[in-house]
Specification:
The complex is a heterodimer of chains A (248) and B (577). Chain A has 248 residues and is mainly α. Chain A is 62% helix and 0% strand. Chain B is α/β, with parallel strands linked by helices. Chain B has four domains: 130 residues, Fumarate Reductase Iron-sulfur Protein, Chain B, domain 2; 155 residues, no CATH class; 95 residues, no CATH class; 139 residues, Rossmann fold (3-Layer(aba) Sandwich). Helix content of chain B is 52%, strand content 9%. Chain B contains 29 helices and 13 strands. The radius of gyration of chain B is 25 Å and the shape is globular. In chain B, 56% of the residues are buried. At the A-B interface, helix 4, helix 7, helix 8 and helix 10 of A face helix 2, helix 4, helix 6, helix 16 and helix 21 of B.
Chain lengths: 248, 577
Amino acid sequence: MSEQLHFAEHTLQEVALGFMALVYCIRIYWFTRFTAGKERQPPTGPASTTPRKGILFSWGIIGMPWAMESSRKNMFMWLQFVLFHMGVVAAIGLSFIIPYLPEVLAIAGVIPTLQVLTGTACVIGVMRMIRRLGGKHMRAISTPDDVFSLLLLTVWFAFAFQAVPNSTANGEWQLMTYFWMTAFFLVYVPFSKISHYLYYPFTRYYLGKSMGRRGVFPFERGQPQAAPTGTPGAPALANVGAIQRVKA
Amino acid sequence: MERSYKAQKVIDRLGQKLNRQVVGSLVACVHCGNCTDSCHYVLANPDDPTYAPAWKGDRLRKIFKKHFDWTGRVVPWWVGAKSPETDADLEELKDIVFGKCTNCRRCTMNCPMGVDFATFNRLTRGLLVHVGIMPEGVAVVSKDQWELGNQMGVLKEDYIDTVEWMSDELVDEVGDDKAAIPIDKSDVEVMYTINPREAKYDPRTISDAAKIFWAAGESYTMPSEGWDMTNFGLFSGDDELGGTVSRRVYEKAQALRAKKVVISECGHGYRSTRCEGANWAQFDVDFVMESSVQTMLRYIKEGKIKVDKSLNISSYTYHDSCNFARSCGMTEEPRELLNLVVSDFREMYPNRAENYCCTGGGGAMSMTEYTPQRLKSARVKADQLKATGAKVVVTSCHNCVDGLTDLIKHYGLDMEVTQLVNLVANSLLVEKAAEVPEAEHAVSTTLAFAGRTILVVDDEADARRFIATVLEDNGATVLQAVDGDEALQMMRDKKPDLVTLDLSMPGKDGGRVFEEIRNDSELSGARVCIITGKPELRRLIYERPVREPEGYINKPIQEDVLVSNLRRILELTNKAA
């Protein structure tokens, strides 16, 4: 291993991680300086719903595609979301495995698993880029940051895929590129939309708390019901299920 | 270019209104586009991306990014950050937040990140209202609610007269003096609050509710003030108005020492009074608040009233109000109640928190400039209604009643709209204290307009014939005019007791005729009831610098609504005289 690669795998990553952690701390401090609005009214809705249940449901809704119409009607999109984020976890994990736990890669099945995850995420990244640039609505809501962040991740997945075997047999450039991209990624994330995962727990917490207090969350159990078919001029309504509250 | 005064005020105000929930939503949106198909405006306008919830939400996000978020301050173009700079920018923003969204919150329910787009929209409306930029209808209604205490400009004496009139009718109907509607009675169990639309256009719902309270033996009262539980602050985004209106209701309930405030069927009224008002007003309520839907359901369950579902013989579906279902969790009680009072209930799909907006929410009915796009977006709802195969759509919201009525007419659906209170009252089994002899009863109802001369002005022969027949059946002498000039001439010649006036007529339209009547010293005292199939023309009347008409009825006309409203006009103006 060259000195440059060693630097990229260790010192560069540690500095980038430290920078990201510092910026995140500042960001969380900034965020918590905004006062949280309080609800003064007594709880409404069914007695079985509470703020606590609402919060848990709200956090977990992303894992319950049946519970939200936008996921239920677009299962393929939801699956893309799951695989894409599994790819993120795999690619981030790889940046720790290679420098600190390289022996893990010797375990049977680890390399193919990581390659399947990062490779699939890369393909999904390409699909999402086509969706973002090809659709009128998506183009209208996209900023340069949205496009760049997706491009960054997609290319990063491609290099992560190549870096998984941790081999320098064909030169170091794949590993070098992967680690430099990882460092850039760590530094860029707090300033980009990629930092959404930092806010996700807060946003869903507050929405869940409010909706739980008002008896809207949780939908106790999703039971899709078929919409009547044959409604002229209403393709958007076809296959739309309805949340049916099922009391235990 | 220097930023306009109003644009700067909007930015400053945003800084004051940001809280953690809003900021969380503003920074969390990843522009994934999952919300797009959840919006009825998008479904009806698939080629126009400016209806997408994320696009609309970005109007606020851009300002936030530019002034309150670091990336947007340093590299605004990278994250789409942008300031409003001119008053024209604010006017453009107004058309988006008031004209392209009803705050129905369906997109919020479908956002994987939990971004509350409806709150963005309301907040942006509030910023604009703060600098006086809003649709004219919003300004008029808000002014009425600030100054007169209710959003339809109903004067206190008119409200009291209407309640007393309904009270007299109810006592006559059930033959029991105890059925009289109490006003400002202290130490009661229930203070009943209503939507001013009930006092102005649909007083039957007041007497229906009173009949139910009487049958249940409830100790209740209607307040003389603080009776309007609706709250235009919810729609305009004006928290100060919201707090003031809510406080009026709360303080009146405390003054009367009522143990409970019952809120008549109104989606936004329930949400405003029950859920948001305490926050806006910073008021800790020490009494219970519930919807009349819950009250009626409890009465039946507790055996306080008895109902016979065979008395409601049509086929019914239920439309969930956005504010009930997506902001207050009220989805099961209306269905439970409906199933107790009708035999043929057909579910609508999607339903509950996934139901589509009636398209009249968020104050949309008062913003006539956006009516064409509202009705276009209503196609989604029209298809949904049609698919149920029901003849009657039931809803627990007055805005929904208006919105649904409008779209049913626009799309030519064979349906009617009603509310649960009407169905419960209709199915109520009561014992009359004193039976009115059939013959006497017949006389009293058929001669409602005996001795009265009523002029019916309408260019449509069918409408004229229908109104004339109903009025003649009720004892009136009916004159008919097909246009404005003929109407004015007949008024001078025949001096009718009342004029029903269509608005949309060829030649001199009803609005102009009305203004001429009011400005003519000989005719200005005439009692006028506007009857129109175009609610959006309402402003043509109410914006005129003359005294308002005595009544207003929407087409298609229901016979009982026509009779009761015209009787009310004649009786009230008699009292006034």
